[in-house]
Design brief:
Blueprint (H helix, E strand, L loop, with lengths): L2 H8 L2 E11 L7 E11 L6 E5 L15 E4 L3 H10 L11 H9 L11 H7 L8 H12 L6 H32 L5 H27 L1 E2 L2 H26 L10 H10 L19 H4 L6 H14 L13 E2 L38 E8 L2 H10 L2 H8 L3 H8 L13 H16 L3 H8 L3 H14 L1 H17 L1 E3 L5 E3 L4 E3 L5 E3 L1 H26 L3 E6 L2 E7 L3 H19 L5 E6 L7 H21 L7
Helix pairs in contact: 2-7, 3-6, 5-6, 7-19, 8-11, 8-21, 12-13, 12-18, 12-19, 13-14, 14-15, 15-16, 16-17, 17-18, 19-20
Length: 615
Amino acid sequence: MSFTNYIKKSFPRVLSVDTEFRYKDKSKTIIDEVVCVVFQDVFNPKDTFKLWTAGQKFNKCPFDFRDCLLVPFMATAEAQSFLTLFWGTPYNVWDTFVENSRLYKCFRSGKGALNLLTTANHYGMNEVMTKEQKDIERNIIINNTTYDSEQKERILDYCFQDVDLTRRVFLKQIEDIENKNHLKTDEDYKRELTQILFRGISQCHVSKVEKAGIPCDYNKIKLFKDNWDHVEQQLIKKYNKEIDCFDEFGTLKYAKFVELVKRNGLIDKWDLTFKTGKLRTDKKYIQKFEHLKDFKTYKTIKDLQNMTRLSIFNPSHDGKIRTSWNMFGTETGRCSPSSSGNIFGGSKWQRSFIKPIWGHCLVYLDYEQQELAIAGYLSGDKKLIEAYNSGCGYMQTAKWLGMVPEYATKETHPKERDDVKVLFFALNYGAGPRYVSQNMKVSLLKANYILLRFKQLYKVCVSWINGVLKSVAMTNRITTRLGWQRHSNGHFKIDKHGQTKGIRNTLLNFPMQGNGSDILRQAMIKLHEANFEIVALVHDAVLVQVPLGDHESRIKEAIKIMVEASEFVVGPIRVGKEIIYSNWKQSDKDQKYFDEIMKEISTYVQSANQPGPGV
């Protein structure tokens, strides 16, 4: 039996599906109206169902989702349409976009590299509609609210073309997966299909998160938005005194940035740009070093400079902040929301704009020391698991290495705890003694000694990591426990400029990041099934809105669900909680930025409202 025949026998109907719609807001997550829906039976392509839904008060779904396998390209859009039509959430979804990303994301880059047209061309379908033609058809949908009979027919035909193309891509994709993953038995097919459906349905649950939206303090956002231009430069000059990287006009001075990198001992590790050969200064790269004070300040300044362009300060029609979470946006399967629309993508002080709606509280639930725990469970390193189970793996490691006394806590010895984080970073990303020396502020000789002792302490984990690299070299792929994969051609990849780039360090950390993303998806699904309202997905955490009253018992239930989700994937991982009753207060070092900004704005507003001389 082939994988195709196995799928055919598993469902009464396998339906390719596409919807056309108009968005309601700039975040492109809330649908104003679903214009039409088209289904096509994958194995009986003449069996096609076209539904015109625009202007209709009620549209009944022609299928029982429990009996169908739905095959969209980018399931979040179709799931959002189904929610808008009150059809509910599908039961079985194969997202051809997600599976295409799993197979080819690491080999293709750039805008449109993984879209439907490009994917179809990859599989030899060269007669498909061009991007320019698609844009023309989409403009007819977007720029109208009513449609004549000719437009209706044209839109339905356009939608059908995408449905038929998705159907053909799906059939090719089944064969591709079967060949690449060497599927041969019914057990292989069952495992593969179960994992694919898990990823597909998770996309539908992401749509629920996007629909919920993040509640915010609209009045404070408006105050900020109306007055930010008047206080921006003054604040940037104040923070720049700490790092001295920008001139008086807020322009980055490259030579001073180089000195900043040197002061932090990172000049030998810092990536260069392909075009200029200079140090990278982009936000995405800087985020890797945000744990260092200087680069946290640098990132804050860059965030301040970008403030007037951020769409987080343009809440949706219902006063909530929204963004596309872009699940599977990274090679490890993590969310990769747009930095311009993600309130969690900037400095943490921005989160102070988040505020629960009346009668509710927000709860931030995050997996504590997740990467450390995952490494321990996957490697079977009993010493590492013991460290994690002590309550703080970093502090316990510091004690075993003799860096702190037995009575030490993270409150009494914060520096030593941060030093151990440096050691774990070195382990997970392949950094050596020089990196440890520079970040722990010790001699190279001592750094080498500490790193050797650290690796000896967790020798089982070190051996496992080396085994992971050897496995990738032999199989050209690495896989999480729930089947998310990263394919490779050894320890390098070809970037969009045709240059070879080493990926050894990325491969080292893939098991922790990839399995962590599977855990988050499992937790999201289980929380929704227990009727929790998730309003945001944040790396290894969720933000949940809970009605006041029985919120304490509900929070305990949510934590239990999240721990069970982690246990299902790798092993039990602790979940921390932070309850938010009003504006979300951040740690002192982050909150000070928000307070200073709002104070400057308040001072400006008061002075602007003062009558001038002679009035």
